Amino acid sequence: MARLGVVIVGVGGAVASTVVAGVELMKRNIVPRRGMITESSPGMPPGPLANQLDVAPLDELVFGGWDINPQSLYAGALQHNVLPTHQVALAREALEQIVPWPGIFKNEYSTNLRGDHVVKSANFRDQIKCVISDIEAFKAKHRLDRVVMVNLASTESWIAETGVHKNLATFEAGLDANDPAISPSARYFYAANRAHAAYVNFSPGPTSPALTEHAEQTGNPFAGSDGKTGQTLVKTVLGAMFRVRQLKILGWYSINFLGNNDGLCLDAPGSNKTKVLSKSTALDAVVGYPVENHQVHIHYYKPRGDAKEAWDNIDVEGFAGIPMQMKVNFLCQDSVLAAPLVVDLVRLLDVCSRAGGRGNQRQFSLFFKSPYAAPGETPVHDLFDQEKLLLDWAAKVRSR
Amino acid sequence: MARLGVVIVGVGGAVASTVVAGVELMKRNIVPRRGMITESSPGMPPGPLANQLDVAPLDELVFGGWDINPQSLYAGALQHNVLPTHQVALAREALEQIVPWPGIFKNEYSTNLRGDHVVKSANFRDQIKCVISDIEAFKAKHRLDRVVMVNLASTESWIAETGVHKNLATFEAGLDANDPAISPSARYFYAANRAHAAYVNFSPGPTSPALTEHAEQTGNPFAGSDGKTGQTLVKTVLGAMFRVRQLKILGWYSINFLGNNDGLCLDAPGSNKTKVLSKSTALDAVVGYPVENHQVHIHYYKPRGDAKEAWDNIDVEGFAGIPMQMKVNFLCQDSVLAAPLVVDLVRLLDVCSRAGGRGNQRQFSLFFKSPYAAPGETPVHDLFDQEKLLLDWAAKVRSR
Amino acid sequence: MARLGVVIVGVGGAVASTVVAGVELMKRNIVPRRGMITESSPGMPPGPLANQLDVAPLDELVFGGWDINPQSLYAGALQHNVLPTHQVALAREALEQIVPWPGIFKNEYSTNLRGDHVVKSANFRDQIKCVISDIEAFKAKHRLDRVVMVNLASTESWIAETGVHKNLATFEAGLDANDPAISPSARYFYAANRAHAAYVNFSPGPTSPALTEHAEQTGNPFAGSDGKTGQTLVKTVLGAMFRVRQLKILGWYSINFLGNNDGLCLDAPGSNKTKVLSKSTALDAVVGYPVENHQVHIHYYKPRGDAKEAWDNIDVEGFAGIPMQMKVNFLCQDSVLAAPLVVDLVRLLDVCSRAGGRGNQRQFSLFFKSPYAAPGETPVHDLFDQEKLLLDWAAKVRSR
Amino acid sequence: MARLGVVIVGVGGAVASTVVAGVELMKRNIVPRRGMITESSPGMPPGPLANQLDVAPLDELVFGGWDINPQSLYAGALQHNVLPTHQVALAREALEQIVPWPGIFKNEYSTNLRGDHVVKSANFRDQIKCVISDIEAFKAKHRLDRVVMVNLASTESWIAETGVHKNLATFEAGLDANDPAISPSARYFYAANRAHAAYVNFSPGPTSPALTEHAEQTGNPFAGSDGKTGQTLVKTVLGAMFRVRQLKILGWYSINFLGNNDGLCLDAPGSNKTKVLSKSTALDAVVGYPVENHQVHIHYYKPRGDAKEAWDNIDVEGFAGIPMQMKVNFLCQDSVLAAPLVVDLVRLLDVCSRAGGRGNQRQFSLFFKSPYAAPGETPVHDLFDQEKLLLDWAAKVRSR
Question: What is the domain partition of chain B in residue ranges?
Answer without folding.
Answer: 4-227+336-399, 231-334
